[in-house]
Structures are given as structure tokens and as C-alpha cells.
Fold this sequence. Notes:
Elements: E1 2-4, E2 8-16, H1 41-64, H2 75-86, H3 91-101, H4 110-124, E3 133-142, H5 149-159, E4 162-166, H6 173-184, E5 203-208, E6 214-219, E7 222-225, E8 235-240, E9 251-256, H7 260-271, H8 276-291, E10 294-297, H9 301-316, E11 327-329, E12 335-337, H10 363-370, H11 372-389, E13 396-397, E14 400-401, H12 410-419, H13 427-439, H14 453-459, E15 472-473, E16 476-477, H15 480-500, H16 504-513, E17 521-522, E18 527-528, H17 555-558, H18 566-573, H19 575-589, H20 630-643, H21 663-672, E19 675-676, E20 687-690, E21 697-701, E22 711-717, E23 725-731, E24 734-736, E25 740-742, H22 743-747, E26 750-757
Helix pairs in contact: 1-2, 2-3, 2-4, 9-21, 10-11, 11-12, 12-13, 12-15, 13-15, 15-16, 18-19
Amino acid sequence: MLMLKKTIAALSLLSILAACQNDENPSQPEPKPRQDINLTRAEQEFMDKGTDFAFRFFDQVCSTEKEKPNVFVSPLSASLCLSMITNGATDNTLAEMQDVLGFPANTFSLDDLNNYNQKLTSALLDLDNTTQLGIANSIWIEEGFKVYDSFVDVNKKMYDAQVQELDFTSPTAKDMINQWCATQTNNCIKEVIQEIPADVRMYFSAVLNKQPIEVGTFVKDKFVSGKYQAKGPGIGLYLTFSTEEQESVEVKVGLSYTSIENARFNREVEAKDVTFDQARKNATKAWNESLSRIYVEGGKEEDKVKFYTGLFHALLGRGLASDVNGYYPRNDGSVGRITLDEKGNPVHQHYNTDAIWGGFWNLTQLWALAYPEYYSDWIKSQLLVYRDAGWLGDGIACSKYVSGVGTNFTGLAIAAAYNCGIRDFDIQLGYEAALKNEVEWRGRPEGAGKMDVRPFVELGYSPYEKQFDMVTREGGSGFGASHTMEYSFSCFAIAQFAKQLGREADYERLSQLSNGWKKLYDKETRLIRPKDSQGRFLEDFNPLSPWKGFQEGNAIQYTFYVPHHIDELIDLVGPEIFNTRLDSIFMLSQKSIFGGGTEVDAFAGLKTVYNHGNQPNLHISWLFNFSGKPYLSQKWVRAILDEFYGLEGIHGYGYGQDEDQGQLGAWYVISALGLFDVKGLTEINPKFQIGAPLFDKVTINLNREYYSGKEFVIEVKRHSVDDCYLQDVSLNGKQQETVLLPFEEVVKGGRLTLKLDSFPNKRLTH
């Protein structure tokens, strides 16, 4: 069994050589004489604990791998591997690991566990004189990572473990581990790992305007003067200066994810002849240019502060990961290079990015409106990962799969960009990646998310099975119901992509899968309800319970997660019941500030009827636009803008704090403009739903490289800044009775004139 982390890998192998003959070693030496194991009463208790672990381990493996007809595991290897690692644990972690192994800390010491394992393995080697048993243990430590000598000594002594350093970033690292495995098992097991997850490394280069009087390094709290190099976690360089009062020391720093040379190059190119004051002025100018893409006038001053704070959060969220010369970190830890233009500049930038889970209800709409060039680079970043690793990432950090929530909406966001006219990427590659993301499971890595896509494709839904608990496997998920809702939506998006590209067979298949949510609709409760693999509804069903079929939400919240077929959902529930239920949800949730109250916790509102602090809910307040009562969307969106978001530090992102790299801030921005699409721009001809802007005038400066228009202006006429109900809607001087605004009309440029008042206009519809 292999346990691999960023810094330590532990490996335990058990080989039964008599049953594993091979051509390279056709004969085996004569076995040792048989030796019975004599156990004391205490040792027999240890043996019982070990046997119990073996059956628990086997049961867990069988429950998570039940799609596979045959399962072969070694509980002993698992136990030895965990036991070795346990010697490096302390406090709660130590207690938890001992509990898992069946040796609780309140009854057994770590010495008891080690002594038992030593005697057991020694005795097993001589137990059966007809079979040659081999047991080999090893620990591989990341080069430069400091571990206590006691950890190494106890594993060498008690487990006969080979302990050695290894550069995990080296392309040959996995080969060295696999070669050791092959050698120890007489070539019976030639490969235990296919890859070593890449570490994310940051390099920096700094230049000072003053000579320090002392230089040294530190590792955590250990300082060494006069030393210029150090390795390991918690390292740093310290500098000591002799300064006069009010004197400042200026430092220019270059950063890179690829090499120290590129860190120096980034610094030279970007800051060589720039003073601190010039850098500050340049940064201010850049931010003003970006923020002024959307210029608001009038309204409350506090709303302007919240608006531009939210816009700042939205633009700050995704960080640059490539160098000025185009080098970037690949998924496997190596370095790639983006194509350069005729001037030697990379044709696009590469960005770190969190998962886009829920981002289609805030970020991508904002990007499409005012920052299409960034949206384009974001897509190209995703496709770089796809080219390098074969799968879109659920979320990436320096191209490395870091997963998000495991549902991967990257394909949906690519399709939405195409719908908006952002098409300066490899469209065929983008479609290939998006389609694979929705329907393929063979060889799928965990970082690509959608690990339960196979049953969704085969059954039309992802089953909830109790044994999966908080994880997702190929056979299903502990979050099967919410995954079904999400996969249905993303399949709809890719279906529209397929239709536009003339992929009719794909379109029909994906359209059918987009109906998966219907399989979980319970007519009795009028709610989405988890089902097991046999098609049976969950019996012990609490609509407000999170984590039991639903990820970061519950049945009340996720029942509204049908943005692509919202009209059908309304018909199933019944328009009157739908509106009454939805309105009452907001009346009730308003008492808890539309979520978890003032508690600063992203999960604070998971057991409530509505939770604005988490992504699955962010479109719900806009659904009245499709149920015949747009004025209720206007009412409740305004209430959320006013009450959930605030000015003070702890309240600035909105209570709940699940900002997720600008998402809550972006929701405020897009909603404050009075423009929102519950379908996340996934229709072939996407349309915004019009709400009630907070400001008297909004000017959206359009990017002429992508859109034909220069600017889109929203003009608001009202008696009071508190007026939130639409009375009249006029586009380019032509009055309309609908709250729908085609995206293409916005990017052509023009003027949207809205009249607001303190009472609703019930004539407006979608």
C-alpha cells in the first residue's frame, strides 16, 4: 500500500512468491522450516484487533469499488503502512490513527502497536514452509524535508523500513519507487504509482537599495547567521539593516512558479528602472482602468463602496501563473511555454484559478460583459491543462489539479463564452474537452471531478449510497442528488455547444442527460430526493439536512437547481405552489440575513431554506422572472444587496465568507447593475433578466476587440433611491413588456432606460 503526500511517501509490500512465478525467476529457494506462532493472552488480543481492522478495511474497499467484479487487497500492508506513518503523528492525529488501526490511545501505547507489528511480521515469515512470504517496507522523504531522527530510527528498527530522500519533482522519481517495488517482489509487482502529484513551488529574486549588515536563514524558529541557503518547510531569509530614523529600505521582488532565472527575468522586465512611487502610480492607474470598465453614477454612496469593493474582489480573485517570457508550470510539475507572438510576447497569459462552481452566476457573466479578454485567457489556461494532462481541471493551482467540490463546470463556462462570441481559442479542442468532461470516466483522475459520471451516464442520475459518506467514487457519491442536478445543467450547456457545431448525435445524447434531475423529483414532497442505485428514494429524508445526498446544501435549496429547465420545474411543482414556497423562503431567510446569520462560516447556512453565502443558491432570487412574478425578484434581490452585504470589514464580502476568489463580490456587481442570467449564459442566444439597478446611470465600456459596440448605458429614472420595482423597460427608445434582454443587444452597444417606483408592475413578464 502506498501513501503519498507532498513530503513523505510510505510503502508497504507483501508478496507471496510461491504464487507469483515469472519467467525471469522460474525457481524459488527452498522455504525455511515451519515455525508456529505462540501468542500470549495480550498478544492474542492484539491479533483480534488486527483481524478486525482487516475486515473493516476489506469491507470499505468493497463498498467503494463495488463496480469492479474482483477485488484483491492486502490489509496487512495497509496496516503496516499506516502504522509507520502513525509514528510521525501527535495529539489528535495520533489518537485518530490509532483508533482507525484498532489500537485506541486510551488502551494501547504506540510502543504496543510497534512491538505487535514487529513480532507479527517476523513470525509470519516463518509460519508456512510451503510458501515463501516477502514483506518489505520503505519510507521516501522529499529531499530537503526535515524529519525527526526518532521517526526514522523507530521505523528502521520496528519495521525494517528503508528510509531515503528523493526529489519528488524529478521525472525519474516514480521510476525509482517502482524499481524498488519490482526488486522487493521479485518482479511480481512492477508498478505501484503512475505519477507523483506535483508540488507547487514559488521562486523569488530580490534587489535591495541598501546593503544589509547581516544576512542569515531560518527554519521555523531556528535562525542561523551568515548562512545563505536553507531547505524545508517554514524556511526564510532574514536581513538586518542599520537605518536612520524614517529611513526606508526599498526591495524589488520578482516572482515565478517555474525557476529562479525566470523570477530574475520577471523582475528585470517589470521593475528594473521603476521606483517605489512609480510602481504605486502604475498600480493605481492599472486598477483605475480596470475598475472603470463599469462606471456608476448616482445612488447611495455606500452602495458605490460595496459595488467597487465587490468588483475589486472579482478582479483580484484569479492570479497570474505564467512568466513574461511565456513559461508556465505544467500539471506534472515540469515547465512548459506558451506560444510567443512576433514581438516575443506570449499570445495569452496563464492563470491560477479556483473551481468555477457557481461562477456562472457571477464571475463569468461579469467577465463576458466587461472583461472578455480575461475570459478568453481563462479558457486558454484551462485548455493548456487539458493538452498537458488530458482532462479539464475542476480547479487548478499552477496547472496542478487541486479539485474544487468535484463537479467540474469548466466545460459549461467554455460553452457560455462561445455563446457570447468569445471564440478566439481552439474551439474544436474546447469542445472535445467539454464533451469528455461530461460523459467520460475511463482513466479519470480525481482532480478532474465528476468521479461518479459513469452511473450518471448509464442510469441518468448519480445514486446516493450511505457507504460513500462524504466521498465520491465511480459507483456513486454521498452527494449523488446534488451532483445529478449539477451534471444535468452542465450537460445542457454542452448540448447547446454541440448543436452550434453541428454535432447532432452529441446534442441528442447530452439533451437526454440534461433531464437527469427529473429522475430525482419526488411528486409527493415536490422536492428533489436522493435515490440509491436500485432507484429507491431515500427513506430517512429530511429536506433541511445537508451532506446526505447534497453537497454544501440541502433538498430545499437544490430543488431550485434546474436553471436550464426552470419552466418545466415550475409546471411540475405548480406555479402557485412554486411562487408561494419561494416567497416564503425569502421571508423566512431574511430573519437570518439570508443564510447563517452573522456567523463567519461558509457552511453556516447549510441547514437553512436559503443560504446566500454558498454557490448553489445564488440564482434562486432571480427565478420569479420565470414564474410570472418578476417584481418579487426585484424585491428580494434588492433586500439581499442591502442586508447581506455591508461596509465593515467582517461584513464586506457578505456574511458566510465563502467569497471563493471573488464570487460573492461579483454577484453583488452583476445584481447591482440589474442584469443576471439564471442559465449562466448557456443558451445558444443567452439573455439577461432585468432587475432594478442601484444607480442612476451605469456605463459599461465594451471591449472593441470582441464586440461591435463601444458602450452600453443603463439609465434609471425613479423618485427615491429606495425604489426597487420596475415600471417601464425601454431598449434604444423602444418600450418592451419583457424583463429579458438578449446578450447580443448589450454588446452591440446602446441604451437601456428603466423606470422604477415603490410599487410593483405586475404586467411585466418573461
